[in-house]
Amino acid sequence: MLMKVLEFFRNLPPKKCTHCGKEIDEQHECYGNTCSDCLGAAYRQ
Predict the structure, then answer these.
(1) What average pLDDT does this structure show over 12-18?
(2) What InterPro entries does the record point to (predicted)?
(3) C-alpha distances in angstroms, 44 versus 4, 13, 25?
């Protein structure tokens, strides 16, 4: 039986930055894999 789509995304492990290993606080299905600290983002929430 196929898993429900929402259940699949809920069960994904937290995404981690490829540079520093810090957990990224964003949607798991996003394509980015680098945290804002490593990107040098000027805007911080």
Answers:
(1) 87
(2) YhfH-like
(3) 34, 24, 12
